[in-house]
Amino acid sequence: MTASSQSVEPFDLVIFGGTGDLAVRKLLPALFHRFLDGQIPASSRIVGIAREALDDAGYRAQLREALIGICDARQLDVFLQQVFYRPLDARKDEGWDDFAAFIGGQPEHIRVFYLSTSPELFVDICNRLGQYKLNQGASRVVLEKPIGRDLASANQINDAVGKVFDESQTFRIDHYLGKETVQNLLVLRFGNALFEPLWNAGHIDHVQITVAETLGVGHRGAYYDRAGALRDMVQNHMLQLLCMVAMEPPSSLAPDAVRDEKLKVLHSLKPIDDNNAAQLTVRGQYRAGVAEGASVPGYPEELGNNKSNTETFVALKAEIANWRWAGVPFYLRTGKRLPSRVSEIVVTFKPVPHSIFNADAGTLSQNRLVLRLQPDEGVKLWLTIKHPGPGGLRLRHVPLDMSFAEAFGVSQPDAYERLLLDVVRGNPTLFMRRDEVEAAWHWAGPILAAWADSGEAPRPYTSGSWGPSAAVALIERDGRTWNEDSE
Ligand code: NAP
């Protein structure tokens, strides 16, 4: 066990949707890594649930194939002995008695029910868990995104789940909050005397948050077409990142202290609606082009040549109406089929008030703090220094560069590793409270409505480009540019 990993109480973790993409690609590898680190108590059980008719051996064989690349087979086989499978249909009675008896067999265990299914099943699953009294004692439920597609549907889900599980038992996951760099943002801001005095409209020029993907929608087109970039990325992940940058110092890291501060930020976002959406937002949809060296089809082709008004790209300018941030734009952009896969937060400081250097020394650049979430999690602080050597003084803009992997010599754990064990521990600091989800929808809803009211289609952009040219114009109108390091 590494110094940083603390043991947890024995638990049963049930994954509804245990054969699905998220479970196999993210959740089980995360649990396996924690197992390798000695953090999964020997009596703990991981239980996959889906409709497919499998037994424990069949499920283990599926997972073995998916996980074999992570580590040597001997350790994997030991881990898989703690993994079980129960075939269940969330909407049918059959099998639930047996499942309840299986879980009830270890009453002293913490129980985690991870709903990694389509959200339409959340209510059915919670109702059954309630019916079999599996919601009692040390039980928790984890809800995957998306929680609704607007405020009304989010409330419906939250109301229904809330009838079975108390808010303190409900963990709404946003895996961005489990990323090392996001954790580190808290430590950088509140563990150093350096930044916080400068962290306001007096010293910060603007903030950019980029979440760029190279992939298209692939086989998830049916899901994605009902969502789009604003619902899929901005309403949840990007607003959570914005909150972590913008919130006031919480009094402690106690769950509600942090979430109260994030909520205040969400409440302070200036509305974007019919009156200003055309100036403050740009939406796009990718067309055929080249991604990672290969020709790729456009979004309509991926949907089976269907015309769609769903955006696969969004750029917007948000503002926070409070004393700390008045007048500081937060530029957000996210999209599919962009030139590189990168997620980062860039805080650009104001220029120095007066230059004492001759014009031939070069130009002064603004200081920038770049927090890279992926790939290569790390932090760069761009400073101006003198180019070394004799002769005339020349200015150079260079980064103080800290790649976490290089600095600490280990690859960074996936966000799900931290978050899954936080659920077991009952620590909701990094999970979204119901009122946060509501406040985020409250802000995002009028943007979606304005787009629908405009009747305009998203602007086409070529796969492999940085989105429609209007997204460049959005920031250049203000005399600024998107951070070039990511491009
Ligand atoms: P998926 O690959 O379609 O998997 C869905 C799972 O649910 C399968 O195991 C499926 O197995 C099971 N299932 C479907 N109907 C069921 C029923 N009536 N009763 C019991 N089980 C049922 O979906 P996914 O990509 O893993 O996504 C799961 C959730 O996570 C979704 O809400 C998604 O939006 C969210 N999410 C996914 C990702 C990702 O990277 N994949 C990322 C973030 C969030 P059977 O058909 O055999 O029942």
Write up what this structure looks like.
The chain has 487 residues and is an alpha/beta fold. The chain has 16 helices and 17 strands. The strands form 3 sheets. Strands 16-15-14-13-7-12-11-8-17 form a 9-stranded mixed β-sheet, with helices on both faces. A 6-stranded parallel β-sheet has the order 3-2-1-4-5-6. Strand 1, helix 1 and strand 2 (45-50) form a beta-alpha-beta unit. Helix 2 packs antiparallel against helix 3 (73-80). The longest helix is centred in the C-terminal third of the chain and has 21 residues, at 434-454. The structure holds NADP nicotinamide-adenine-dinucleotide phosphate (NAP).
Topology (elements, then pairings):
Layout: E1 11-16, H1 21-36, E2 45-50, H2 56-67, H3 73-80, E3 83-87, H4 96-104, E4 110-115, H5 122-131, E5 139-143, H6 151-162, E6 170-172, H7 180-191, E7 204-212, H8 221-227, H9 229-246, H10 255-268, H11 277-280, E8 281-287, E9 289-291, E10 294-296, H12 299-302, E11 313-319, E12 329-335, E13 342-349, E14 368-374, E15 378-386, E16 395-403, H13 404-408, H14 415-425, H15 434-454, E17 459-462, H16 469-476
Helix pairs in contact: 1-14, 2-3, 6-15, 9-10, 9-15, 10-15
The protein binds NADP nicotinamide-adenine-dinucleotide phosphate.
